[in-house]
């Protein structure tokens, strides 16, 4: 696919939500592939403008509670999705299995819905995120959500029952504030949200 310029309708994250903590895991080796993912060097710190405006409202709401968002992934070029497909086809490359998919056979990650050959992230209005403390001695610390980001297993389902009350409360907090400001959750992953009124329903970008 031919590389594209940043299209109209997208904006840089820090221009709209300057206080959003961004830790793009696929721009590092701290992800389920164990490699910097193709398309993330340099990291793509952009989202659709509608998504950013909605995230700003979420951030402003959380700030009143001494909390804020941490973004793990936003816009994902199609070439990065293709990288995941190639990785999944290398059956012997299981370096990160213990940390990210200990109970799921690698060849079932697509079938079970943890990886997709077409990702909503490539449309620019899907985000992976969590909540952090922004004040006090725990500033910068993530709230306990029961599993890490990108943990592939039933425990990551948003309303998984076998969690502590604190973990359930924290997931509910993220769910409610994101839903209130116009996002829908992917039920298998507590961190995964898409803008309900996303502007590019059928376009998978690779700029």
Secondary structure layout:
Layout: E1 10-12, H1 13-16, E2 21-22, E3 46-48, H2 49-63, E4 67-73, H3 78-89, H4 97-100, E5 126-133, H5 165-180, E6 183-185, E7 192-195
Parallel strand pairs: 2-4
Antiparallel strand pairs: 1-3, 4-5, 5-7, 6-7
Low-confidence stretches: none
CATH topology, by name, is Muramoyl-pentapeptide Carboxypeptidase, domain 2
Task: Kindly name the structural category.
Answer: alpha+beta
Count of discrete structural domains: 1
CATH class: Alpha Beta
Task: Give the ordered list of helices and strands.
Answer: EHEEHEHHEHEE
- Walk across the major sheet and give the strand order: 2-4-5-7-6
The biggest sheet amounts to: 5 strands, mixed
Counting DSSP E segments of at least 2 residues, the number of strands comes to 7
Shape: globular
Architecture (CATH level 2) name: 2-Layer Sandwich
Query: Approximately how much helix is present in the residues?
Result: 10-25%
Helix tally equals 5
Would you kindly provide a brief summary of this structure?
The chain has 207 residues and is an alpha+beta fold. The chain has five helices and seven strands.
What features would you highlight for this structure?
globular, single chain, 207 residues, 5-stranded mixed sheet, Muramoyl-pentapeptide Carboxypeptidase, domain 2, 5 helices
What report would you give on this structure?
The protein is α+β, with helices and mostly antiparallel strands and 207 residues long. It has a single domain, classed as Muramoyl-pentapeptide Carboxypeptidase, domain 2 (2-Layer Sandwich), CATH 3.30.1380. Helix content is 25%, strand content 14%. The protein has helices at 13-16, 49-63, 78-89, 97-100, 165-180, and strands at 10-12, 21-22, 46-48, 67-73, 126-133, 183-185, 192-195. Strand 6 (183-185) and strand 7 (192-195) form a beta hairpin. It is globular and about 45 Å long. It starts with 9 loop residues before the first strand and ends in a 12-residue tail after the last strand. The relative contact order is 0.19.
